[in-house]
Input
Amino acid sequence: MHKIWTDMFWLGLPVTEKILRSVIVYLFLIGGLRLAGKRELAQLNPFDLIVLLTLSNTVQNAIIGDDNTVLGGLISAATLLLINYAVVRFLFRHPRLERIAEGQSAHLIHKGKIQDDQLAKQTISQAELEAAARRQGIAHLRDVEEAVLEPGGIITFTAREPIPEVLRHRELIELIDKLTRDVAALRATPPALPGA
Output
């Protein structure tokens, strides 16, 4: 029984080393994901997903070292959570640094026109943009006025507002359809007999 407790809680590395390993890997991943671009954060294709999954497995050994104890894992996890909390709070209090760390938003569609240069810069294909629009309930890119890739990696869409002529045309078509249905209903009704 003693061996079980020793294997679970006897650290193979000093606590300071566990904490430093976690901090170094955290900072490396933050920098690496920032350099990789915004699409890595939210607009994942299968290749991006594979990279992120293998990345987490790759850095696991750098964080835990030769220590597979429960206590060592808890120390590493707590360190990652604490440093993330500290970084987020720090950036919240320093908006300029937050803008530098997160980057700027990118207009992928502006005034209804697809910005091919921005799509290329952000490595987002038109098919991926169309799929993102459909996920937000927009059937076609021609119905989009603005599409913005936010610093967090999410694409937000603003649908085009129909021009007044289009709205009036729709109303007229609806009225014609209603009149057509009413006339058809009148024709289908047998005429009333006189004196009946």
In short: The beta strands are 106-110, 113-114, 144-149, 155-159. DSSP finds eight helices and four strands in the chain. The mean pLDDT is 83.
